[in-house]
Design goal:
The chain is α+β, with helices and mostly antiparallel strands. Bound molecules: flavin-adenine dinucleotide (FAD). Flavin-adenine dinucleotide binds next to α1 and β3.
């Protein structure tokens, strides 16, 4: 496998060029960290190979710098052996128990092996087939666990998670990894209107959890959610200057995710996301992942790239001096 996004349908090109953030990131890191080479059509029409040995400056820049440097016509990725079965699945709890559960979860994630990733989603329960009829539509804390290693080792790794609180249901068991990768596709079908806001956190304090839960009390639509991704692990051992994407040290990434089918709901959903994002800002590290930034955060681009900004502008100036590729989170040529 090559590590890609949270679900199986996210476009591979934009995902990779921004970074590529998925459920095995603590073990196999981001999609860009598994890129061996790419064929790129640059602004002057040249077709070049970007790799460690060929145009290494371009290779560095396209690993996080998005579509700023040319049109990528092929990618070559490094593969990892995994599965076919991995221990994976969900545990659901009522949201009223979330303060204690999230505190317990942070203790587990602080010492988790790289193989274990636990993401928390706070949302209204969808009509999942394993839920009894009173739960769909009610606010729940979903813990989504995946152990990217042997199933027996996974059982040891999830034991603490299984022991937390009074569960509604525990459906963690061995599943084919390809099934787990597609498990949430039904919640992310094409055609919906999406708006996301995201923060990185070094830790989740009780005050941060309290402010987060206020937002969950006012979810504007059943498809809206906040997920708190557990990162760190191998991800935190990559240097912030090794690729253009510098944000490697966060322990949690929050994604405030709004989805709706109807444009009439835009204002309500977007306002909710912006309010929650503002409330959580004091707890964040200030770093960001460009693929989780909406278009209205253009003024945050330089901040998202941090100390890599200057080098990115220089590479942009070399390969796209007239800023032909600008319909994106734009990096200005030096
Ligand atoms: C429902 C949903 C779920 C998501 N889940 C994840 C996730 O789990 N992990 C994650 O990391 N991100 C996720 N994202 C964000 C995702 O990575 C970006 O939206 C990404 O841009 C999608 O890639 P795409 O190929 O579909 O890009 P498109 O939407 O087609 O294009 C977006 C931009 O990417 C650039 N681009 C695309 N293709 C090329 C190319 N061939 N050459 C050069 N530039 C190109 C261009 O700048 C373009 O404007 C999700 C987004 C949505 C809407």
């Amino acid at each position: 496998m090559v590590p890609t996004g949270v679900n199986s349908t996210t476009g591979i090109a934009g995902l990779t060029l921004g970074g590529g953030f998925g459920r095995t990131k603590r073990k196999f890191v981001m999609t860009i960290d598994n890129l061996i080479s790419a064929e790129v059509v640059t602004a002057d029409g040249s077709v070049v190979t970007a790799s460690a040995d060929s145009h290494p400056d371009l290779f560095w820049a396209i690993r996080g710098g998005g579509g700023n440097f040319g049109v990528v016509t092929s990618f070559e990725f490094r593969l990892h052996a995994l599965g076919p079965e991995v221990l994976s699945g969900l545990i659901l709890h009522p949201v009223k128990d979330a303060p204690g559960l999230l505190a317990g979860l942070t203790e587990i994630t602080d010492v988790a092996p790289d193989e274990l990733t636990v993401w928390s989603a706070l949302r209204k329960a969808p009509p999942l087939p394993f839920l009894t009829e009173e739960w769909p539509g009610r606010e729940v804390l979903v813990s989504a666990a995946c152990c990217a290693g042997p199933v027996a080792e996974g059982e040891t790794a999830v034991a603490g998670l299984r022991a937390l609180g009074n569960q509604i249901v525990d459906v963690i068991s061995p599943h084919p990894f390809v099934g787990w990768q597609a498990a949430f596709d039904a919640l992310l079908t094409p055609g919906a209107r999406n708006y996301r806001k995201s923060h990185d956190f070094a830790a989740l304090s009780p005050d941060a959890v309290r402010d987060l839960l206020q937002g969950i009390n006012s979810l504007p639509d059943p498809a809206c959610e906040v997920f708190m991704a557990h990162v760190g692990g191998a991800m935190a051992r990559v240097g912030s200057g090794d690729t253009a994407h510098p944000a490697r040290s966060a322990h949690y990434i929050m994604n405030v995710h709004t989805r709706r089918d109807d444009a009439d709901k835009d204002d309500r959903c977007i306002t909710w996301a912006r309010d929650l994002y503002a409330r959580m800002k004091p707890y964040s590290t200030g770093s960001a992942y460009v693929n989780f930034m909406p278009e209205d955060e253009e003024d945050h681009i330089a901040g998202a790239y941090g100390k890599n900004s200057k080098r990115l502008s220089e590479v942009k100036g070399k390969y796209d001096p007239d800023n032909l590729f600008r319909i994106n989170h734009n990096i200005l040529p030096a």
